[in-house]
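peptidylprolyl isomerase: structure, please.
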Amino acid sequence: TEIAVERRFVPESCPRAVRPGDFVRYHYLGAFPDGTRFDSSYDRGSTFNVFVGKGQLIAGMDQALVGMCVNERRFVKIPPKLAYGSEGVPGVIPPNAVLHFDVLLIDLWNSEDKVQIQTYFKPEKCPRTVQVSDFVRYHYNGTFLDGTLFDSSHNRMRTYDTYVGIGWLIPGMDQGLLGMCVGEKRIITIPPFLAYGEDGDGKEIPGQASLVFDVVLLDLHNPKDGIAIENQLVPESCERRSQTGDFLRYHYNGTLLDGTLFDSSYSRNHTYDTYVGKGYVIAGMDEGLLGVCTGEKRRIIIPPHLGYGEEGRGKIPGSAVLVFDIHVVDFHNPSDSVSITVNYKPSNCTVLSKKGDYLKYHYNASLLDGTLLDSTHSLGKTYNIVLGLGQVVLGMDMGLQDMCVGERRTVVIPPHLGYGEDGVEGEVPGSAVLVFDIELLELVSGLPEGYMFVWNGEVSPNLFEEIDQNHDGEVLLEEFSEYIQTQVDTGKGKLAPGFDFEKIVKNMFTNQDRDGNGKVTAEEFKLKDQEAKEEHDEL
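Here you go.
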C-alpha cells in the first residue's frame, strides 16, 4: 500500500534535496516486477522534466522524488493505488500493476532560485571589480548540475571575451560576473530561466537545464579607461623629465593583468630604445613614458584600446590589458648639446685649453644611470689628446674646451655627439648618453692652426743653407729631420705637441718636396708665410 524506496547511490556532497514545488530533470527505467521493461527515458535520449508535488506525476513518483540529491540513484516500488490503479494504461500498463522505477536525478531547481555564487579563491589585492559595461576576459568550464561537461574555454585555449551587463551574455552570467577581481575564481550556478530556458541552446544544452560555470577572471577594463600609472621608485634628484620628442632607453617587463609574462627587455639584455610622443610605440606607452626621470621605475597599465586592440599581437591576446614595469635608463633630445658642470676651478685659472693644445686628463665614464663604463684611474695613466682634432668623440672635444689645469668638471654628452646609434660593441650601448667626470692634469699649448712647427725667435736668413749641411744644393729627409731635431732640442723651435716626431717631420718635408723626388731644392723651399704671400700676390 506504500511506496518502497531503496537508495542505491547517494553522493558524498548533497547541498540541496528535492522539495515539493521543485522542478527536476531525471532519467529512469520503468519495469514490472518480473523485469519486463515498459518505459525508459534513456531510450528517448532525453530526461524527464517535471515539477514535483504539483500533480504532474503519479502520486508514488511525486513521493519518491522528494529528498533526492542530484546524482542520487533510487530504486522505487510503487503500488497500483499510487500508480495507475485498476485502470492501468491500455496497451502499456495492465490494471493493478506494481511498478518498479530505477531513477537517477540529473537536475534540480526552483522558480524562486537566484544565481548562486561560490568564491573559492580571491587575490589579496583587488583594486578593481567588474561593473556593468566593463569588458572582461575569462576562462571557464561549463557543466550541468550532475557534473557533465558541456563546454570549456580551456579546451579551446582561448578566453571568452565579452562586455558585462549589456545583454551579450545569458542573464545569470551577467549577474554572476559582477564584483569579480582579476585572478578571482568562483563557481556560478544559474537556473534555466536565467540561462537558456525551456528550449536550451539547440546544441549541447537541453531545455530546463541548470548550468554551473567554474570561472577564473583574467582581465578587466572599461572602454572609457585611460592608462594608469603607479610610481614605484622616483629618484630624489630629478633635474629633467621626459617630454614629447625625447629619445628614451628603458628596460621593461610586459605582463597581462593576471601576471602572465609576454615580453621582457631584460631577457634580451638590451634596452628598448624609442622616441616618445611620436607614435613609435603603442599609444598607451607613448603617454606613460612622458614625465619620467632617469632612474625612475613605474608601472604603466594600458587598456587594449590604447594597446594592441581586439586583434592582439604575438603572445598578446586580443582585448588584453597590458602591464609594463619599466626602468628608465636614460633619455635625451636630438636638439641637446653637451652639458658642462664645473665642480672645481683653481683660483689661478688664466691659461684655458683651446684647439690644438695637448691635454693630459683623468676621467670616469659612466651611463646616466650610473653604470661605470671606463676609468683612467683604474688603468693608472692619463688619457692624452690634441684638442679639437677628432681624437675623441665630438662631445668630448667640446667638453674639454676652456679648461684650466686642476679644473674638475662633469661633461654629459648626448649620443649624437658621442657614439651614436651603434655605440661601441661590448662597451657602450647604442644611443647612450655618456657622463664623464674629468680632471685636467696637464696642458701644453698648441701651435697656431695650420702650423706643425714654429720658431721661438728670429728665423735665419740663410735657413736653407743651414739645413743643407753638405752644401750640395739639395736637402734630404735625413738632413731635414736632424736639423729640426736640433732646433727643438736647443729651444729655437717648437713642434706641435701630441704628435709623433717622425710623422710631423716627414709631413713637413713632403710639403717642401713639391716635385716629389725625395729632395728639396732652394727653389722649392719656402716658409709658410712666404707661401701665403705668394698666393696673395697671385690672387
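Notes: The radius of gyration is 46 Å.
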